[in-house]
Amino acid sequence: MAAAAAKVMELPWCQSMVPKELETWYHKNIADGTTDFGKDCRSAINKVVKSVQNICSTNRLQFTLSRVVKGGSLGKGTMLKDFSDVDLVAFIKPPRLRSFLDLGPAPAVYIQQLDGIIRELEAALKQLPFVEGINRNVFMINFTINNLGPGGRSLGVDLLPTANCGCGHGRAHADIFRAMLALPSSYDRKFFSASLVEHQLRFMEQIPGHVKALIRLVKYWAYKCLPDKLHKSYPLELITIYRWKNAGEPQRISKAQGLKDVLQVLSNLRGLRHYWTFLYDAALAIQAITQLGCVNPIVLDPANPTKNVCEVYKEGNNIKTIEDAAHDTLKSNLLKDVVVSANWTICRPTPTPGKATKNKKNKKK
User: Fold this and answer.
1) How far is CA 276 from CA 21, 282, 290, in A?
2) Which of 64, 75, 164, 197 could form a disulfide with 89 if both were Cys (CB 3.0 to 4.6 A apart)?
3) CB burial of residue 102 (10 Å; 0-12, 13-18, 19+)
4) 326-351 mean pLDDT
5) What CATH number is given to the structural domain containing 43?
6) Band of pLDDT at residue 3, cut at 50, 70 and 90
7) Does the model's pTM come out above 0.90?
8) CA torsion sign, 108 to 112 to 115 to 121?
């Protein structure tokens, strides 16, 4: 805990900064450079995608790519310079990889097919001179792109091959989710969650830029105040959106109020329980929570009710680590006196009567 507290005190906005200075600090330390970093990332990712597509088109791989979708922070528009990785989801055309709905409730065939594709993609990536540090597991291939942009940064990339989930082919989303609930274990369900990435992106498309800016601020807090294992972006993104919607979806916000609201939730994770009705209804969400035995903290993925994005928080002492770090930041000069209004309104100070009278006299002169 001492280490976490020390990291909090290193933050400039947790020392002498007051709320009205936060906007300026955000633009100087977070916003500036993020756009250029995003452009560099997109350029590098496009180079990887085109190279892999070229290898596929020359029949050097035994499968065909349908499309490659940029997920993660890059695809959602919440990238944070120097602190973001990228997810690439590669949709494989059948028959080499078929939807698990076409294979029945036992996913063994799908897993076997996926393993072969991952091995082929790994071999293809090893042909690219600008790709390094290639590793794979049963779900994905991880690699690094070095010398990114003028600053020579590095970018971590997760490449996840998957089949189409079957949406848009006469199957309702509810049918997809019920089929996933019928799978034997959470381990089996993980093999199919990547196929829902486009629904995650569609959910994020409706979120305005000022909320994504707050998300970047919350993620920056996490990167500075929490250990590496708790730098997962998606839970923080969804918790921030949940609190913004709870505030009435304001179009103008005080970043200090928004940050404090989110940290208050993170300081009491055992009280966190939320689901969305974006692709599924409340009945299906409750069914998933009950059937899977979920306990708080719960935030269901809006694109996948079988996935509680807060599961990582329940490992070891993670809940206490997050709650302690949030409590420490809430006591900082920046936030300790901030009052979170119902809609995160930017409050303007009311001039004192003396100053108001003086201003009127000056105008008369």
Assistant:
1) 34, 8, 16
2) 197
3) middle
4) 83
5) 3.30.460.10
6) very low
7) no
8) negative
